[in-house]
Beta transducin-like protein het-e4s
Amino acid sequence: MYERVLEGYEKVLGPEHTSTLNAANNLGILYVDQGRHNEAETMYKRALKGKEKAWGPEHTSTLDTVNNLGILYAYQGDTRRLR
């Protein structure tokens, strides 16, 4: 369902719309739960780049995605990327 939402938002709203970026972030959460870490990282980075552009680095939605990416890195034991 998350993939369907993301595809629909991309088509209707465009890839940089904040709703599309939120869908990408949510898909990243699902991928983490499924153990699909590389795909999760791709979704988080996509969402983060767009959110930083749309809202800036200090917006709470941007920071939510930063947090999700940090959780992924911590889960993987990749402490060098936690800084």
